[in-house]
Known about the structure:
There is one protein chain. A 3-stranded mixed β-sheet has the order 1-2-3. It has a 3-stranded mixed β-sheet with strand order 4-5-6. It is 53% helix and 7% strand. The chain has helices spanning 10-36, 47-57, 66-86, 90-107, 113-124, 131-154, 180-190, 198-217, 222-225, 239-249, 269-275, 284-292, 326-332, 353-366, and strands spanning 233-234, 253-257, 263-268, 317-318, 337-341, 347-352. The two termini are 31 Å apart. Helix 2 (47-57) runs parallel beside helix 6 (131-154).
Amino acid sequence: MWPAPLAINATERWRIVLGAGLGLLGTAALSWQWLHGAGSSAWLVAPLGASTVLVFALPASPLAQPWSVVGGNTLSALVGIACAAWLPWPVPAAALAVALAIALMLALRCLHPPGGAAALLSVLGHVTDWHFAVAPVLLNSALLVLAGVLYNQLTGRAYPHAGTAAPAPTPADPAPRFSEADLDQALRRYNQVLDVPRDDLRVLLEQAELQAWQRRLQRLHCGDIMRTDPVSVMFGSSLQEAWTLLQQRQVKALPVVDRYGHVVGIVTLADVVRAAGVISPQGLDAGLRRLLRPTPAAHSDKPEVVGQVMTRQVRVVSADRPLAELVPIFSSTGHHHLPVIGADNRLVGMVTQTELIAALLQRHDTD
């Protein structure tokens, strides 16, 4: 029956406690001055204590957003007032008030647990004046939300928290390993109210997935799985030589190095086929024969050497780079081969998706 500990540090605990105290202090002080000073006996409602917990301890929660606080408390108070006025029996009036308040909050997207208390308070106090929903309920809620906006933003917490879908990743960013549609489908299947905004849930899932890979691969580095005999070509190597190496070694990419062994580019099967101008599979053989045939003249109307068709922007990794960091690169950026460089920035190996998958399977079997 004892719950698990909260995964927050002492700093966050003090941030919550201090914010709750200051927020309610400001709300109570202003409400006392404006309402009690004007002769009103009701200047602060008890459900606001629960609203304070949500606004300052769970500012990202959908239940704690400004519309949820203000709309949930105020509309629920109106429901309770109506039930108190129309039903003379307190027992059914109390139950009906809370049930109707929940239905209204769900319909208007302002579900707020203290709203149920606001509805019940109106019935138990036999409040029949609708002004009670405005002052103190609406006033208290609005002042608390204002205090929450100021304090949370000053202490580095996003409030209000929109909770919308994340923007589509740019080409430079790794794409998520599950789509927004996948997340929506999972939430529909779960079919329960979550006290976590949708965008935070997506980030948590992605971080948990990456953490799992890092835990499994934390002792492996690129140098542990790379091919240590990488075949490479130079800028001036002929396309015929590059094509022959690609076929003989049964690889799909060759690093291009300078005379010192530094990586200056990469040439792939796709680069060669593209240079041949092949549009359909039927013209592949003829296009390649024309491309790879050396031109005897001093000038040529087609590429002759690797440097003319290679990709100059090549991504490299160091031999001591943790293998876990390659998972998002291979899974979402379109890379299939990564040259590995040593301490002197010279080519020392190649790591491919094949080696990565083999390492993942081996680690999975070990676990």
